[in-house]
Design a protein that fits this description.
It is a single chain. The chain contains 21 helices and 16 strands. The protein has about 500 residues and is α/β, with parallel strands linked by helices. It has two domains: about 240 residues, Rossmann fold; about 220 residues, no CATH class. It has a five-stranded parallel β-sheet. The chain has a three-stranded antiparallel β-sheet with strand order 12-14-13, with helices on one face. The protein has a two-stranded antiparallel ribbon with strand order 2-3. Strand 8 and strand 9 form a beta hairpin. The longest helix has 21 residues. The radius of gyration is 31 Å and the shape is elongated. It starts with 8 loop residues before the first helix and ends with a strand.
Length: about 500
């Protein structure tokens, strides 16, 4: 049976508890995790060889640090997982607003309590989750929000003069004492607030309403920022920048496998209704949309393309597939490539466009990105030369129309009219053994068709509707090795 926690200062002394700074605490817990082979940042994928080692070095060095990266690179999530390096709970003087260490109180309230009650000073225990404080920096944040302000009502009720420390209503930073204080988008803080942070980091003091207050805070300070703002010409004051120990650069997934794993982890897939099966090809096409967008000259690279794009696209794709399953009373929900086109609103809202992109419009660019993503997936699974019979079918006037809400069997019947299409699709479905066979063939057939569209061999009139490109001459059956002869379209 676990022993009860000490509830007075005397009992805490007898327990053998030894106080330590929050940075020493995090360092020692990190070392323990490293030696035990524990995963340091569960749920953070793709950073194992880049970001995580730099974070480990910063924590081992007891540095305050900043994460520099574009939106959607898990910066805030990393900061919130720092809680895992704190002790399960720590003792504080009961009633203290600044988590006063019973052995070394920094606030006047805590000092008076210890002077008055000595070993009978009551103790509370604060869990690790309450030792993390986060603030989103905005231009309207004040010193009172971060540091604190004089509370006239408290002064009147307690009979204190306004300059008395007991009249202060503490802000977020003092309340994070003996914990982690995180500021998101640091350069958006006004200069005078940055000076306040600098003073706390350097001297441990601050002036509130003209009265100097000494706060020897024990805090792990962590920040996030966009690299473009965090420069000598940006909105960050140099003395504060100089006292941040480490700058850790985050990044988007560097390979498709990591991107797919992140999207699959974060997206809402298990919806508690009909069983859902997501073919690997669909996962890859959705993820490649983000990869293509990050390289597109029409998309603002300084703003970035958030990892939230493929996450929300996949969720929208599943919703359209659910709608089709309900229309056909299907037992399974399996998304198709056609469902990705139905998810255009989830793409256009995530793209910040350059001038050229604004002229073309977000929807056109989103369609282009889907087509290129499908083309890259086609190259992964198929060889273009194997699709020549399919191209010949459309060149000779063939067309294909598949309804958006058609069943898998109906789609396969339509695809079966195109010579060689289903047969070619079948060569790539062996990697999708966990997906319904008919739906798997539909998806693979769509990828073949979309790949040929991306390579400008055929054209897509709309989702599910394909025909010969108008800039290709019509072919008619003829004699010879090719079996077809070229004719000019009227």
């Amino acid at each position: 049976m676990p022993q009860p926690l000490p509830d007075t200062l005397g009992a805490l002394k007898r327990s053998g508890y030894c106080p330590r700074s929050v940075k020493d605490e995090m360092r020692e817990n990190l070392i323990r995790k490293l030696q035990a082979g524990e995963r340091l940042f569960p749920g953070i994928l793709g950073y194992e060889e880049s970001v995580v080692p730099q974070l480990v070095n910063a924590l081992l060095a007891r540095h305050n640090f900043i994460l520099l990266g574009l939106r959607g690179q898990a910066k805030s999530r990393i900061l919130r997982e720092l809680v895992g390096f704190l002790d399960d709970r720590i003792p504080i003087i009961a009633g203290s607003e600044v988590n006063d260490d019973p052995f070394h109180p920094i606030g006047k309230y805590g000092r008076l309590k210890v002077e008055e009650l000595r070993d009978e000073t009551p103790i509370d225990w604060v869990p690790r989750e309450q030792r993390y404080v986060e603030k989103l920096a905005t231009p309207d944040v004040t010193i009172a929000d971060i540091i604190g302000d004089v509370d006239p009502i408290r002064a009147a009720r307690g009979g204190h003069v306004l300059s008395d420390e007991l009249t202060i209503h503490y802000g977020l930073l003092p309340r994070a004492n003996r914990g982690v204080f995180a500021v998101n988008e640091l350069p958006d803080l006004a200069g005078k607030i940055q000076v306040g942070l600098f003073n706390i980091m350097q001297e441990g003091d601050v002036q509130i309403k003209g009265y100097p207050v000494r706060l020897a805070l024990d805090v792990q300070l962590v920040f996030t920022a966009n690299p473009e703002d965090y420069t000598a010409r940006g909105k960050i004051i140099t003395p504060l920048k100089d006292r941040i120990g480490a700058e850790v650069m985050t990044h988007y997934p560097r390979d498709l496998k990591d991107g797919v794993a992140i999207t699959e982890q974060e997206a809402w897939i298990d919806r508690g209704g009909r069983p859902i099966q997501v073919p690997q090809m669909i996962k890859e096409v959705v993820e490649r949309i983000a990869f293509e967008a990050r390289e597109d000259q029409r998309v603002d690279r300084r703003s970035g393309v958030s990892q939230r794009l493929p996450i929300t696209v996949l969720e929208s794709v599943l919703s359209n597939a659910e709608r089709r399953a309900m229309a056909n009373d299907a037992a399974l929900v399996v998304p198709w490539v056609a469902d990705i086109y139905a998810a255009l609103p989830a793409i256009t809202g995530k793209l910040e466009l350059e001038y050229e992109g604004e002229l073309q419009g977000g929807e056109k660019i989103a369609r282009d990105l889907i087509s290129r993503a499908a083309g890259a997936t086609f190259d992964e699974y198929f060889v273009e030369e194997d699709a020549e019979p399919i191209v010949e079918y459309f060149d000779t006037g063939g067309a294909l129309q598949v309804g958006e809400l058609s069943s898998a069997d109906a789609c396969l019947k339509g695809f079966g009219t195109v010579p060689g299409l289903v047969e070619l699709a079948r060569t790539a479905t062996v990697s999708q053994v966990d997906v319904d066979e008919a739906a798997s063939l539909v998806v693979a057939s769509e990828v073949v068709l979309e790949g040929l569209v991306a390579k400008r061999r055929i054209t897509r009139i709309e989702a599910g509707s394909y025909a010969r490109r108008k800039d290709r001459p019509r072919r008619s059956p003829g004699q010879g090795s090719g079996g077809f002869a070229w004719t000019q379209e009227t």
